[in-house]
Automatic annotation (TrEMBL):
UniProt xrefs under InterPro entries: UTP_pyrophosphatase-like, YgjP-like_metallopeptidase
Organism of origin: Reticulibacter mediterranei
Domain YgjP-like metallopeptidase: 23-228
UniProt keyword annotation of Lipoprotein present: no
PANTHER family in UniProt: UNCHARACTERIZED PROTEIN YGJP, UTP PYROPHOSPHATASE
Descriptive protein name: Metal-dependent hydrolase
Keywords, ordered alphabetically: Hydrolase
Length: 233
Protein backbone atom coordinates (compact mmCIF):
# COMPACT_ATOMS: atom_id res chain seq x y z
CA UNK A 1 0.00 0.00 0.00
CA UNK A 2 1.38 3.39 -1.04
CA UNK A 3 0.53 6.70 0.59
CA UNK A 4 -3.00 7.78 -0.37
CA UNK A 5 -3.52 10.95 -2.39
CA UNK A 6 -6.54 13.17 -2.90
CA UNK A 7 -8.06 13.20 -6.37
CA UNK A 8 -11.07 15.09 -7.71
CA UNK A 9 -13.17 13.46 -10.40
CA UNK A 10 -15.81 15.85 -11.68
CA UNK A 11 -17.42 17.15 -8.46
CA UNK A 12 -16.42 14.26 -6.20
CA UNK A 13 -13.33 14.14 -3.99
CA UNK A 14 -11.71 10.77 -3.35
CA UNK A 15 -8.86 9.44 -1.28
CA UNK A 16 -7.00 7.30 -3.82
CA UNK A 17 -5.17 4.29 -2.45
CA UNK A 18 -2.95 2.32 -4.82
CA UNK A 19 -1.63 -1.13 -4.02
CA UNK A 20 0.56 -3.60 -5.90
CA UNK A 21 -1.58 -6.40 -4.47
CA UNK A 22 -4.86 -5.05 -5.73
CA UNK A 23 -6.20 -6.33 -9.06
CA UNK A 24 -9.43 -4.37 -9.42
CA UNK A 25 -10.84 -0.89 -8.75
CA UNK A 26 -13.02 -0.53 -5.68
CA UNK A 27 -15.06 2.33 -4.22
CA UNK A 28 -16.10 2.49 -0.58
CA UNK A 29 -17.89 5.17 1.41
CA UNK A 30 -16.74 5.77 4.98
CA UNK A 31 -19.06 6.24 7.91
CA UNK A 32 -18.81 10.04 7.61
CA UNK A 33 -19.43 9.98 3.85
CA UNK A 34 -15.80 10.14 2.76
CA UNK A 35 -15.07 8.51 -0.60
CA UNK A 36 -12.23 5.98 -0.77
CA UNK A 37 -10.96 4.78 -4.13
CA UNK A 38 -8.75 1.67 -4.22
CA UNK A 39 -6.87 0.76 -7.40
CA UNK A 40 -3.95 -1.34 -8.67
CA UNK A 41 -0.64 0.49 -8.45
CA UNK A 42 -0.15 0.75 -12.22
CA UNK A 43 -3.78 1.44 -13.19
CA UNK A 44 -4.00 4.43 -15.60
CA UNK A 45 -5.77 7.53 -14.30
CA UNK A 46 -8.22 7.68 -17.21
CA UNK A 47 -9.27 4.09 -16.54
CA UNK A 48 -9.91 4.95 -12.89
CA UNK A 49 -11.99 7.99 -13.83
CA UNK A 50 -14.07 5.94 -16.26
CA UNK A 51 -14.74 3.32 -13.58
CA UNK A 52 -15.88 6.04 -11.18
CA UNK A 53 -18.27 7.58 -13.70
CA UNK A 54 -19.83 4.19 -14.35
CA UNK A 55 -20.61 4.04 -10.62
CA UNK A 56 -22.10 7.53 -10.30
CA UNK A 57 -25.64 6.31 -9.66
CA UNK A 58 -24.48 3.92 -6.95
CA UNK A 59 -22.24 6.55 -5.33
CA UNK A 60 -24.93 9.23 -5.12
CA UNK A 61 -27.50 6.75 -3.82
CA UNK A 62 -25.13 5.71 -1.05
CA UNK A 63 -24.23 9.30 -0.21
CA UNK A 64 -27.91 10.25 0.03
CA UNK A 65 -28.49 7.34 2.40
CA UNK A 66 -25.52 8.39 4.53
CA UNK A 67 -26.87 11.92 4.75
CA UNK A 68 -30.21 10.56 5.91
CA UNK A 69 -28.60 8.29 8.50
CA UNK A 70 -26.37 10.98 9.93
CA UNK A 71 -28.97 13.71 10.09
CA UNK A 72 -29.08 14.80 13.69
CA UNK A 73 -32.36 13.99 15.44
CA UNK A 74 -34.42 16.87 16.76
CA UNK A 75 -33.15 18.14 20.10
CA UNK A 76 -35.20 17.02 23.06
CA UNK A 77 -36.77 19.53 25.42
CA UNK A 78 -37.01 18.70 29.08
CA UNK A 79 -40.62 19.78 29.51
CA UNK A 80 -43.80 18.01 30.55
CA UNK A 81 -45.09 15.75 27.80
CA UNK A 82 -41.88 15.42 25.79
CA UNK A 83 -41.43 11.87 24.49
CA UNK A 84 -38.29 9.81 25.12
CA UNK A 85 -37.74 6.36 23.65
CA UNK A 86 -36.72 3.28 25.58
CA UNK A 87 -36.61 -0.16 23.94
CA UNK A 88 -38.62 1.07 20.98
CA UNK A 89 -41.43 2.68 22.95
CA UNK A 90 -41.96 6.38 23.62
CA UNK A 91 -42.54 7.44 27.22
CA UNK A 92 -43.75 10.91 28.20
CA UNK A 93 -41.71 13.06 30.55
CA UNK A 94 -43.11 14.48 33.77
CA UNK A 95 -41.30 17.07 35.84
CA UNK A 96 -41.60 16.37 39.55
CA UNK A 97 -40.77 18.39 42.68
CA UNK A 98 -37.54 17.76 44.51
CA UNK A 99 -38.00 14.77 46.78
CA UNK A 100 -35.92 11.92 48.10
CA UNK A 101 -35.86 10.28 44.69
CA UNK A 102 -33.32 9.84 41.87
CA UNK A 103 -32.85 12.74 39.43
CA UNK A 104 -34.39 10.56 36.71
CA UNK A 105 -36.42 7.37 36.81
CA UNK A 106 -38.97 5.46 34.74
CA UNK A 107 -42.08 4.88 36.83
CA UNK A 108 -45.61 3.89 35.80
CA UNK A 109 -44.86 4.40 32.11
CA UNK A 110 -43.49 7.91 32.68
CA UNK A 111 -40.02 9.33 32.82
CA UNK A 112 -39.84 11.38 36.01
CA UNK A 113 -37.24 14.15 36.03
CA UNK A 114 -36.69 16.22 39.14
CA UNK A 115 -37.17 19.94 38.59
CA UNK A 116 -33.73 20.68 40.03
CA UNK A 117 -32.19 18.31 37.43
CA UNK A 118 -33.57 19.97 34.29
CA UNK A 119 -30.36 21.80 33.45
CA UNK A 120 -28.50 18.48 33.45
CA UNK A 121 -31.33 16.58 31.80
CA UNK A 122 -29.28 15.35 28.86
CA UNK A 123 -26.58 14.00 31.16
CA UNK A 124 -29.12 12.26 33.38
CA UNK A 125 -30.78 10.56 30.39
CA UNK A 126 -27.43 9.47 28.97
CA UNK A 127 -26.41 8.02 32.34
CA UNK A 128 -29.78 6.30 32.72
CA UNK A 129 -29.65 4.67 29.28
CA UNK A 130 -26.05 3.62 29.91
CA UNK A 131 -26.92 1.97 33.22
CA UNK A 132 -29.90 0.15 31.71
CA UNK A 133 -27.80 -0.95 28.76
CA UNK A 134 -25.11 -2.55 30.91
CA UNK A 135 -27.69 -4.94 32.35
CA UNK A 136 -30.03 -5.46 29.39
CA UNK A 137 -27.32 -5.86 26.76
CA UNK A 138 -25.36 -8.29 28.90
CA UNK A 139 -28.37 -10.59 29.13
CA UNK A 140 -28.95 -10.51 25.37
CA UNK A 141 -25.28 -11.04 24.58
CA UNK A 142 -25.32 -14.11 26.82
CA UNK A 143 -28.22 -15.50 24.77
CA UNK A 144 -26.77 -14.87 21.31
CA UNK A 145 -23.14 -15.72 21.96
CA UNK A 146 -24.06 -19.40 21.98
CA UNK A 147 -25.86 -19.13 18.65
CA UNK A 148 -22.94 -17.33 17.05
CA UNK A 149 -20.18 -19.25 18.79
CA UNK A 150 -18.33 -16.19 20.08
CA UNK A 151 -16.87 -15.53 23.52
CA UNK A 152 -16.74 -11.83 24.43
CA UNK A 153 -14.62 -10.95 27.43
CA UNK A 154 -16.81 -8.02 28.42
CA UNK A 155 -19.28 -5.46 27.13
CA UNK A 156 -19.12 -1.71 27.54
CA UNK A 157 -21.77 0.94 26.92
CA UNK A 158 -20.57 4.37 25.87
CA UNK A 159 -20.85 7.00 23.10
CA UNK A 160 -19.62 5.59 19.79
CA UNK A 161 -20.25 8.42 17.36
CA UNK A 162 -22.15 7.06 14.36
CA UNK A 163 -21.58 3.43 15.32
CA UNK A 164 -24.24 1.38 17.06
CA UNK A 165 -21.69 -1.19 18.12
CA UNK A 166 -18.05 -2.08 17.79
CA UNK A 167 -15.83 -5.10 18.33
CA UNK A 168 -12.69 -3.90 20.06
CA UNK A 169 -9.41 -5.37 21.14
CA UNK A 170 -9.22 -8.11 23.75
CA UNK A 171 -12.64 -9.43 22.65
CA UNK A 172 -14.54 -6.54 24.19
CA UNK A 173 -17.89 -5.54 22.67
CA UNK A 174 -18.86 -1.87 22.72
CA UNK A 175 -22.40 -0.59 22.31
CA UNK A 176 -23.65 2.96 21.96
CA UNK A 177 -25.96 3.95 24.79
CA UNK A 178 -28.45 5.01 22.11
CA UNK A 179 -29.06 1.35 21.28
CA UNK A 180 -31.39 1.37 24.28
CA UNK A 181 -33.79 3.58 22.32
CA UNK A 182 -34.28 0.89 19.68
CA UNK A 183 -36.82 -1.97 19.65
CA UNK A 184 -35.41 -5.16 21.23
CA UNK A 185 -35.46 -7.06 17.92
CA UNK A 186 -33.25 -4.41 16.32
CA UNK A 187 -30.84 -4.38 19.26
CA UNK A 188 -30.58 -8.15 18.89
CA UNK A 189 -29.47 -7.66 15.28
CA UNK A 190 -26.73 -5.25 16.38
CA UNK A 191 -25.57 -7.78 18.98
CA UNK A 192 -25.41 -10.62 16.46
CA UNK A 193 -23.61 -8.35 14.00
CA UNK A 194 -20.85 -7.57 16.51
CA UNK A 195 -20.60 -11.16 17.75
CA UNK A 196 -19.94 -12.34 14.21
CA UNK A 197 -17.15 -9.78 13.96
CA UNK A 198 -15.82 -11.22 17.21
CA UNK A 199 -15.64 -14.65 15.62
CA UNK A 200 -12.99 -13.33 13.30
CA UNK A 201 -15.10 -12.03 10.40
CA UNK A 202 -13.73 -8.49 10.44
CA UNK A 203 -15.11 -7.43 7.06
CA UNK A 204 -18.61 -7.54 5.58
CA UNK A 205 -17.84 -10.27 3.07
CA UNK A 206 -20.34 -12.99 2.02
CA UNK A 207 -19.00 -15.30 4.74
CA UNK A 208 -19.82 -12.63 7.34
CA UNK A 209 -23.45 -12.34 6.28
CA UNK A 210 -23.79 -16.12 6.06
CA UNK A 211 -22.92 -16.37 9.75
CA UNK A 212 -25.33 -13.56 10.60
CA UNK A 213 -28.10 -15.37 8.71
CA UNK A 214 -27.41 -18.61 10.54
CA UNK A 215 -27.99 -16.91 13.88
CA UNK A 216 -30.77 -14.60 12.67
CA UNK A 217 -32.51 -15.68 9.43
CA UNK A 218 -34.55 -12.46 9.17
CA UNK A 219 -31.59 -10.13 9.69
CA UNK A 220 -32.17 -8.36 6.35
CA UNK A 221 -35.49 -6.89 7.54
CA UNK A 222 -33.94 -5.80 10.83
CA UNK A 223 -30.94 -4.29 9.11
CA UNK A 224 -33.21 -2.34 6.75
CA UNK A 225 -35.33 -1.04 9.64
CA UNK A 226 -32.22 0.18 11.45
CA UNK A 227 -30.94 1.97 8.34
CA UNK A 228 -34.26 3.69 7.71
CA UNK A 229 -35.37 4.49 11.26
CA UNK A 230 -32.49 4.21 13.69
CA UNK A 231 -31.46 7.84 13.74
CA UNK A 232 -34.99 9.21 14.00
CA UNK A 233 -35.55 8.05 17.58
Amino acid sequence: MHNPVTVIIDNLTFELRRSVRRKTIGITIGRMGELILSAPFDCPQDYIERAVREKYSWIYTKLARKEMLFKAPAAKRFVDGEGFYYLGRSYRLRLVPVRDNPPLELHNDRFLLREDAIDQGETHFTNWYTAQGRVWLQERVELFRYRVGAEPEAIKVQPLGYHWGSCGRNNILYFHWRTMLLPPSIIDYIIVHELVHLRGERHHQPSFWELVAQAMPDYVERKRWLAENGNSL
